[in-house]
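Input record (one chain):
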Amino acid sequence: MTDAQIGLAVATPIIIGFAVMLYRMGVLQRGGTISAVLASIAIATVLFVSQ
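The corresponding structure, as predicted from the sequence alone:
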C-alpha cells in the first residue's frame, strides 16, 4: 500500500464520521449527509483504484 492509499483509508472514515456527527447535531440535513458520505466513498474508491 502506498502512502496515498493509507491516507485515503484513514481520511474517508473520518469524513464519514464527521458527516454523521453533524447530522446528529442537526447541522446537516439527511440529503446533505448522504451526499457527503457517498461522495467521499466515490472519491476514495476512484483514487484508490486508479493508483
